[in-house]
Amino acid sequence: MKIEFQGAALTTTGSRHLLHIEDKTILLDCGLYQGRRKESYEKNKNFPFDPSRITALLLSHAHIDHCGNIPNLVKNGFTGPAYCTTATLDLCSALLRDSAHIQEKDVEYLNKKLARKKEKPVEPLYTMEDAERCLYNFHGVYYHNTINVLENVTATFLDAGHILGSALTAIDVKNGDGKGHRILFTGDLGRKDMPILRNPEIPSGVNTLIMESTYGNRVHGDIRLSEEKLGKIINKIYARKGKIIVPAFSVGRTQELVYCIKRLMDGRQIPRIPVYVDSPLSVNVTEIFRQHYECYDAPTRDLFLQGEDPFGFCCITYIRKVEESKELNDMQDPCIIISASGMCEAGRILHHLKNNIENPRNLILVVGFMSSETLGRKIVERAPVVRIFGEPYNLRAEVEILNEFSAHADSNDLVGFVHALNKEGDLRRIFIVHGEEPQCTALGNRIKADFKGDVFIPKTGDIFPID
Ligand SMILES: [Zn+2]
Known about the structure:
By secondary structure, the chain is of the alpha/beta class. The chain contains 14 helices and 22 strands. It folds into two domains: 2-218 and 407-465, 4-Layer Sandwich (Metallo-beta-lactamase, Chain A), CATH 3.60.15; 223-405, Rossmann fold. The chain has helices at 37-45, 64-67, 70-75, 86-116, 128-134, 226-239, 253-266, 280-291, 298-305, 322-327, 349-356, 375-380, 411-421, 437-448; strands spanning 2-5, 17-21, 24-28, 56-58, 82-85, 138-141, 146-150, 153-159, 167-174, 180-185, 208-212, 243-247, 275-278, 316-319, 335-339, 363-366, 385-388, 391-394, 398-401, 429-433, 454-456, 463-465. Helix 4 packs antiparallel against helix 5 (128-134). It is globular and about 70 Å long. It starts with a strand and ends with a strand. Bound molecules: zinc ion (ZN).
């Protein structure tokens, strides 16, 4: 048996690892590589292996850097089953279509530019048709149900506590001598006490661990304080009759915020301020959250069983139509507008920022990671002037950062996870993936301090024998 690393090695995108067992290959995740446009296009288009030779795909969760290249995998000859949890399947159905739409629009824009230079047009990485076609290969499985992946190989999805449907994938391989080997792939590891989701599980008997390290060198704020802090911010802005503008990712962050606002309102800790979720994808994804109560933690499930909608309350409006979105521009009263994209690079959030960024009564609430070079990052750095749709705007609104909402385990969580997993001393080796180099190295060094087995930080293309 061998493990080959073909993505998210010393970087955080393009999650893709291959498990070679005799003459069969299992692919763990098939994410999109995200980075500079031309380089990512080539990397995503050309597979370093033959997709038709992959027997099965095990998918950890629906974030696009983990699932976003499945349409292309199927287009290039993969015919096997793609297993994931039932919630991941439904989220993929919405997100892969959305991704195809983005790919098609991007190429349309690029081809106009190429035509002016009399250069050859390019094709989208995949089309809407490809995205819809690949969904035929998906098989949704409930947590804890065992899947027969190959003869002598089974897989089980366990709670990862990262986003709705996210899973730790436990793969059990029976050897010829009757002994077994258990491999655990974390996908993205979440945190304890996240709103809505259950805590990450700790499976027993793991021998080989493939672990993410996005925040391998950072420690987050206490998630239990996030709701209290959010309440204080809302009260402050309500008192001065301002608006709160929140750029948020459609999957996870939007629903967590809505859920926390509902709890604060139910507990009368904040006034009945109108809340608008203004993004068609966020509205669709929230609908999927409503359908998958089997993924909820106890408090959210209790609420649901009492007949309450965790994502609905008196003052919330979900907006799909452009006209309704535009009507928000004329509103003068205090309100909260949650909109995508999360890094302020595209989408309706740009209109809301444009209309509200110059008023010092307003507040821009940052709840997610902002990559360098994005408008979101410039807002985080409080640049005095920012450009929106090519025009300069003075950043006069207040900016508040609530990083307690991160959906990734931090350095302490990751080290704690390894300790808990190795309680019985079964763990022999750890592969650290899905992190930039400083994060991987820092985490590796912390783990090596008291772990007796091997710790590897693989590079793209590395292959390791496993016994
Ligand atoms: Zn993720």
